[in-house]
Amino acid sequence: MKNANEVWVGTYHGRHDGTPVTVTATRDDTRPEPYAWTCTCGASETFPTEYGIDRSAWRHTHPTLWDHLLHKAARLLRTRNTR
Description:
The structure is a single chain. The chain is an alpha+beta fold. The chain has helices at 53-61, 65-81, and strands at 7-16, 19-27, 35-39, 44-47. A four-stranded antiparallel sheet has the order 1-2-3-4, covered by helices on one side. A hairpin with a 2-residue loop joins strand 1 (7-16) and strand 2.
């Protein structure tokens, strides 16, 4: 649910492993870190200023090859450690 104090900053569309996702960036001056983005995949991140929010949200919706490799390695390590 959208907070009454939130102001829309931007929307980013992309994919995670072929699944469409949307990131919505907002500003809410009542929060300790007023800038934040939230993804439909459940991830979110907060920022003290507007600097970095665009790059972070864009990279979350458009992961690089390096990001894909890191996520795959993390999944493999989690699987190995739970056996």
